[in-house]
Amino acid sequence: MRAIAILLPACALFIRCVNTPQAEPLTPDRVADMARSLAAKYDPDFHFDYPMVQVKGGIFTMGCTNQKKGYDTDECPYRDTVNGFQMGIYEVTKYQWMQVMGNNPGAFSDCFDCPANYISWYDAQKFIKKLNTLTGRQYRLPSEAEWEYAARGGVAGANENVLYAGGNRLKDVAWHIDNSDKRAHPVGQKAPNALGIYDLCGNIREWCEDYYLAYPDCPIPPAMNPTRCCRGGSWSSTYFACRISERMGVEPSGRYLNMGIRLAHD
Q1: For labelling alongside 81, which of 30, 57, 104, 226 has CA 20 to 30 A away?
Q2: Residues 194, 154 contacting (CB under 8 angstroms)
Q3: Is there a contact between 199 and 186 (Cβ–Cβ < 8 Å)?
Q4: pTM over 0.70
Q5: Can you give the pLDDT at residue 13?
Q6: How far is CA 124 from the centre of its chain?
Q7: What are the structural domain ranges in the chain?
Q8: d(Cα 147, Cα 232) in Å, to the nearest integer?
Q9: Which pLDDT tens digit goes with each residue over 54-87?
């Protein structure tokens, strides 16, 4: 389990995880500039067009199944079962967030096709509640098990030992610290995984619905239990933090420049 590479000073108290140094520490002025947002632009013709893929349920090994790049102590592999569900092909974009919520959160605010970021778990719940009212649907965040199962490629790829969603060459499937130019990018530009889902292991780290809890026979520090799960790595993550099995527990009120959401649906 690794910390998010970009931590806003004002939010530093809201995260409980093992901190790792930044490759290039940001100055307060740089952080303030990145967090400055353009005003939201309302589109009167907006329609929530959010393609999803059906993920067939199955049994799979959750946790670190490939130790080629190392592993963390909270990734003990175990067998888990996932029921069928739908997963968003893309992360929720700034444009979509703006039309539903009326604000433009976080950095890179002029890139409307980039993932919405600087979003807390609570913000995500407000977005989903409002979105479901507007659409009459029942969108939600994926569970941690659903996220990992989908990242592995569902039934077909559940037991393959790939490092990243889409293969073992990170640069082909993810925007990360070595190729992102220290910023998020429009969704869907890298290669998808076996299910046709993009950006699962990079671009923006994604909130999951459930608490960050220990796997069977795999203890975690007690202080981590009140936090919510985040998965997937981001534009500021190293190769290690982009691995499929990488986990993180973050305070649900925390907002970070490299965190956003992807939706699921039953």
Answers
A1: 226
A2: yes
A3: no
A4: yes
A5: 29
A6: 12
A7: 9-18+52-265
A8: 9
A9: 999 999 999 999 888 888 999 999 999 999 999 9
The arithmetic mean of pLDDT across residues 109-116, rounded, is 93
Mind spelling out the 3-state secondary structure of the chain? CCCCCCCCHHHHHHCCCCCCCCCCCCCHHHHHHHHCCCCCCCCCCCCCCCCEEEECCEEEEECCCCCCCCCCCCCCCEEEEECCEEEECCCCEHHHHHHHHCCCCCCCCCCCCCECCCCCHHHHHHHHHHHHHHHCCCEECCCHHHHHHHHHCHHHHCCCCCCECCECCHHHHCCCCCCCCCCCCCCCCCCCCCCCCCCCCCCCEEEEEEECCCECCECCCHHHCCCEEEECCCCCCCCHHHCCCCCEEECCCCCCCCEECCCEEC
- For the residues 145-171, what does the mean pLDDT come to? 92
Q: Position 239: which residue type?
A: Y
Residue with tokens 């303030």: 32
